[in-house]
Write a structure and sequence with these properties.
It is globular, with a radius of gyration of 24 Å. Strands 2-1-11-10-12-13-14-15-16 form a nine-stranded mixed beta sheet. Strands 4-3-5-6-7 form a five-stranded parallel beta sheet, with helices on both faces. By secondary structure, it is an alpha/beta fold. The two termini are 20 Å apart. The chain has 19 helices and 29 strands. 29% of the residues lie in helices and 23% in strands. Helix 4 runs parallel beside helix 11. The chain has a domain of 83 residues: ANL, C-terminal domain (GMP Synthetase, Chain A, domain 3). Bound molecules: adenosine monophosphate. Adenosine monophosphate (AMP) binds next to strand 14, strand 23 and strand 24. Adenosine monophosphate binds next to strand 14, strand 23 and strand 24. One of its GO terms (molecular function) is acetate-CoA ligase activity. Its EC number is 6.2.1.1. Keywords: Acetylation, ATP-binding, Ligase, Nucleotide-binding.
Length: 604
Amino acid sequence: MTAGTERPIRRPVIPKGPATYRMPPNLADYEGVRKSFRWDEARRALSGLPGSRGLNIAYEAVDRHAAGSRAGREALRFIRADGSTRSLSYAELALQTGRFAAVLRDLGVGRGDRVFSLLGRSPELYVAVLGTFKNASVFCPLFSAFGPEPVRQRLHLGAGRVLVTTRALYRKKVAPIRDTLPDLRFILLADADGNPEPDTLDLAALLAQAPPDQDIVATQPEDMALLHFTSGTTGTPKGATHVHEAVVAHYATGLYALDLHPEDIYWCTADPGWVTGTSYGIIAPLVHGVTVVVDEEELDVDRWYRILAEQHVTIWYTAPTALRMLMKAGAERAAGHDLSALRFIASVGEPLNPEAVVWGQDVLGLPVHDNWWQTETGGIMIANFASMPIRPGSMGRPLPGIEAALVARDGQGKPLIENGAATLVTEPDVMGELALRPGWPSMFRGYLNEEERYRRCFAGGWYLTGDLAKRDDDGYFWFVGRGDDVIKSSGHLIGPFEVESCLMEHRSVAEAGVIGIPDPVAGEVVKAFVELRPGHEPSEELRLEIIGFARKRLGAAIAPRLVDFTTNLPKTRSGKILRRLLKARELGLPEGDLSTLEQAGPRP
Ligand code: AMP
């Protein structure tokens, strides 16, 4: 990843401006809290289900507020395309999510059954996620920009029983593949308007008939709550499973890494189809009882500045791609917007360019605090905290309760494990594989139906993240790059194998190699190199046909933006495509330059 390998600006940025100091940070004494922190104490800040019936994310996020003094407080504030808003209070959200749970129950959908969504940021999505938890079912969000093939594959792998979607998305992406999904029993249309498609149900009508089901089904901390698909280098997407106990980490990280205070107005720009959109777009802020702003539209520079100003957003959690788009649009676009309510800005998902940290300070009045985590960790693991100077280019320091280390690698790029113990990098500024000591509550509990793939993520007592990083003398971590071939484009993780497999279904393609190449805004864009079958000749027309084919099946967010024809895809002796070599060639680097990364053992 180029952005991560740029020379970082090492000068610390100390937040200035009155807004920063309006609120004492929750983590004022980092060292002290790290020493005394215990996860079971964090757990005590939550309520647990009444009557000692266990722990349920929806109860912590909604019902315990609805039962108390925050009942009337705005929980979700949706901003429609025209800028008008509609809100749900905690009490209303408790009612709606109870009804959704009752709808599931009446359909015979029960404990552990999978409820999927293919939705934009609409109220139905939020109601469905939390209502699913209340019914002890398992929620799996899908990115609404996926094409039919990624949707089919994930519904199939996750044995989706229910899908909540819209009429347009159903017609375009689900109807054509529905026959191949026998487990998918119920399709609930959020916008059926009294007239559902054949073999689908009208969600609004079902909700209207459902009794508000106040009793949340008993759930234990280890019961599965969420399924998030993520991409690896090889094979099918991996379904990372998360349990109700994750809410303890969402609470603690919301407190420390996002500095959430009860009166905050919070905006997370992540799409709820990905893990950030659920962990920090829904769960963490609601657990803290704050007001969550939800923009129903996609990124638009002027709209975003308007939202920050007019909604008086105090905490903003966004992503490097979005910040780069704002930077590109020019500082003058921010002028005239009163951003004085903002008191904390954080970013996640990709390397945050040091320039973006400084730009935040200059243009928004606050620097951007980078933090790091991944689908498998379920919650923020490493962060620049409100109470500390930021090191631009660094991901920050581990959260209380999180032990992070760098595992040295052997000559083959594999983690160095001797006699069952990992050899750790102890010197500053030396690269190793970022590793975390297992045991935090939001850690994934497995890859669905892939025990062996899950097991291979652990060695010598550590969870290996697949990312390469360094640590400086003061304990700040610096992202170096991925240890594998997975692509990050506009913050979305893309498995090259999934793209290659799709390309090879085109009649002209014999073989394909897919890599990410640097892009100033998206971080990386997907580029494919294809070898043609005999009888097919490269042409501009064929290139466009292949791109169109991939876009239709995979969706624009995953399909390659660029396709090159080649006759010599680099391969290992066993015939595996050497994507790293392809990348070195593409970037005009001596092939040895990527050798360290290339040697990295394949991530499952
Ligand atoms: P995902 O599982 O889709 O959330 O993607 C997780 C991956 O995104 C990580 O393993 C990193 O490779 C990358 N990532 C997340 N946050 C950061 C960050 N702050 N800096 C650099 N890379 C990041």
